Structures are given as structure tokens and as C-alpha cells.
């Protein structure tokens, strides 16, 4: 029996955590994105617009 492992990434807006999360996302497609609404450079709703506009991320569920 083959078990499929899903990836869920939770990234804080701390600079070190952002870098680590970005590196993981460059090599993996998450099954779910947990997103904060209140972030320093753009809000969560703006991020969702970007994610849903890209073919590679448009089908990933996003929770705010």
C-alpha cells in the first residue's frame, strides 16, 4: 500500500520564518495554505488574488 503524504505549511511573518517558508514552497506544492489577513507588506486578500491567478496555485485551498 502506498501512502500519499500531504504538505501543509504555516509561515509566520517573521523574516527567518518567511525565508524558510519560501524555500519550502519553491520545491513543494502544499495541500493547504493557512494565511494571515494582517501582514506587513500586503494583506491576505491580496495574496489570495495572486495565488488564484496562477495555474500552479489556483486549486490549493486557502484559509484565512
Largest sheet: 3 strands, parallel
Quickly give the structural class: alpha/beta
Number of structural domains: 1
- The whole-number mean of residue pLDDT values reads 83
- Unreliable spans: none
Strand runs, count? 3
Tell me what the structure shows.
- The protein has a single domain, classed as Rossmann fold.
- The chain has a three-stranded parallel β-sheet, with helices on one face.
- 2% of the residues are buried.
- Helices cover 36% and strands 11% of the residues.
- It is built from two helices and three strands.
- The mean pLDDT is 83.
- It starts with 7 loop residues before the first strand and ends with a strand.
- The longest helix is centred in the first third of the chain and has 13 residues.
- It is globular and about 45 Å long.
- With 64 residues, the protein is α/β, with parallel strands linked by helices.
Key features of this structure:
64 residues; alpha/beta; Rossmann fold; 2 helices; 11% strand; three-stranded parallel β-sheet
Question: Short summary of the structure?
Answer:
With 64 residues, the protein is an alpha/beta fold. It contains two helices and three strands; from the N terminus they run βαβαβ.
Write the layout of secondary structure elements.
Layout (H helix, E strand, L loop, with lengths): L7 E2 L5 H13 L4 E3 L9 H10 L8 E2 L1
Parallel strand pairs: 1-2, 2-3
Amino acid at each position: 500500500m502506498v501512502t500519499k503524504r500531504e504538505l501543509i505549511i504555516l509561515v509566520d511573518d517573521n523574516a527567518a520564518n518567511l525565508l524558510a517558508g519560501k524555500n519550502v514552497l519553491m520545491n513543494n506544492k502544499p495541500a493547504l495554505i493557512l494565511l494571515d489577513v494582517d501582514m506587513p507588506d500586503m494583506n491576505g486578500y491580496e495574496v489570495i488574488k495572486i495565488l488564484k491567478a496562477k495555474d500552479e496555485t489556483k486549486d490549493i485551498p486557502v484559509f484565512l
